[in-house]
Amino acid sequence: MKVLQFTIPVPLDKSIIVQKDVLPFFYPHLHRHQEIQMSWIQQGEGTLVADNNMHAFRPNDIFWLGANQPHIFKSEASYFQPKSRKKIVALVIFFNPNGELASLFNLPETKLLKNFIMQSQSGFKVPEVYKAEVSSKMMQITNSSGTDQLLQFVDLLKQLSGYADMPPLATAQKSQMVSEHEGIRIGNIYNYIMQNYDKAITLEDAAKQAHMTPQAFCRFFKKHTLHTFVSFLNEVRINEACKKLTDGAFDNIATVAYTCGFNSITNFNRVFKTVTTQSPSEYMTSYFQSV
Fold first, then answer.
1. Domain HTH araC/xylS-type: where (predicted)?
2. Residue 127 contacts by C-beta under 8 Å, 6 or more apart in sequence?
């Protein structure tokens, strides 16, 4: 997907870029870059869109994004309010396995690491049980330099390659390549849906945002996202519902359902189970047991 191609500035004396972001909200546009990205969300919450899939994120989540994988960390709507004092904090590591590091990964001794990188092109979220180890190693990389930093980085890759049960962020089937104009249009549609998920959005409303007829919009959206409009909207709403259910800011499940754009608790329960394979109460139980 040719979406707002970024070039990460690489210092001449470094092959690994370590960046600390402290901002009012995450960069709000769908984009990609040739560097692999590891993001440790230290502060902030919202929805990550990676390729054609969505994932809620909250503090202490860690994500691996593959090279040229279209993505957007969409901060919750409250971060964009004019008087908002919220901020996001993230520690990010970028590296290009085909750039300055190519010779390292072509060594016979690093074959397993190269295989791990190739198998992780669709990204992954670090499971809860491994977060402490990975975040500790990311801090060691941040606080070191030169040869020490490179060795710590290789150790992180070795550590990650030994973990099991890390399902990809996106399905194996990729959406078709699109022009930059189409990519920006898709990004605008994503933004519109994610900012208005709590309202009664119709197909006609979304089509107007793309300046298309409903019929043409349906074909365009399905072709480039592998989602129907309704399935994407439902996933956004359920992602938001999952965050609200586990944040403990609402009195009951029905309140969460209505604040996420559902007009009946029955429909909410049905869609929730379709998206997550669990009922809302089962999801809450499973989440708090794992935490």
1. 187-286
2. 163, 165, 166
pLDDT digits (tens, 9 = 90+) for 97-111: 998 899 999 999 999
In the block, tokens 């198998």 appear at 119
Ordered strands of the 62-65 beta sheet: 16-23, 88-95, 36-43, 62-65, 124-125
What are the tokens at 13? 């004396």
pTM for the model: 0.77
Residue 36: name the closest of 113, 128, 98 by CA: 98
Q: Is the pLDDT of residue 18 over 90?
A: yes
Rounded alpha-carbon distances, angstroms, from residue 198 to 10, 194, 207, 232 = 40, 9, 18, 14
Whether the Cβ atoms of residue 28 and residue 191 lie closer than 8 Å to each other: yes
pLDDT reported for residue 20: 94
Rg, C-alpha atoms of the chain:
20
